[in-house]
Amino acid sequence: MTDKLPPQLLQLFAPRPALRYLxxxxxxxxxxxxxxxxxxxxxxxxxxxxxxxxxxxxxxxxKKDREKMERD
Length: 72
Fold this sequence. Notes:
About 35% of the residues lie in helices and about 0% in strands. By secondary structure, the chain is mostly helical. It is flat and about 75 Å long.
């Protein structure tokens, strides 16, 4: 079917040149030295104590409702 196309359109379907090979820029996974992975159990107590002193602020929707009630 493509043999019936004019040369200008055949150029659009011509294959591109092959990509140039580049060696990997990082280390192989087996050669990497990463820090040891530890659990999160040591942070559980800190997470429980985090919100003890939290005072929620008024959201924009609550502020809008409060101002509407004050006007009425």
